[in-house]
Amino acid sequence: MPGPILETDRLLLRPPKAEDLDGWAEMMADEEAARFLGGAQPREVAWRGLASMAGSWALMGFGMVSVVEKASNKWVGRLGPWQPEGWPGTEVGWGLHRSAWGKGYATEGSVAAIDWAFDNLGWDEVIHCIDKDNLGSIRVAERLGSIRRGQTRLPPPYETQSVDVWYQSREQWRAR
Given this model, what pLDDT does residue 158 score? Predict the structure, then answer.
């Protein structure tokens, strides 16, 4: 399995596995959980998303990781470094199963992922592409110390969607 296994106090962060599909598909079928992740989708489309993240590790040497609760060994989301073709920058993003909302997992896991990205990928900055109505993710970006840079559009198939870009440099991250 390519990629790191990172641990936080409550989470295990590891590259995606085929066994993650049930949780991934459940999250992506949930209208509210998938609202800012491209919208609800059937299991077959969710599989392609999971395979895309796994494939990113093989092609790029990085990708989002699966988020697993240590206490329950339950898959609760995905987060981490992400930069598909045409993306507006070097992103650390997150998406969590609704059962994991409000527990601080996005912040906790993103801290580990940002540290890993700066230490291992040589990135100069990290961005987060966030819909202006996604107040939960805006709060996570603020807790991470990111600031709003402005708006951009994402590449196809999301080209009609405008998002705010939140960012911080490696120096800002290290100084926080």
Answer: 87
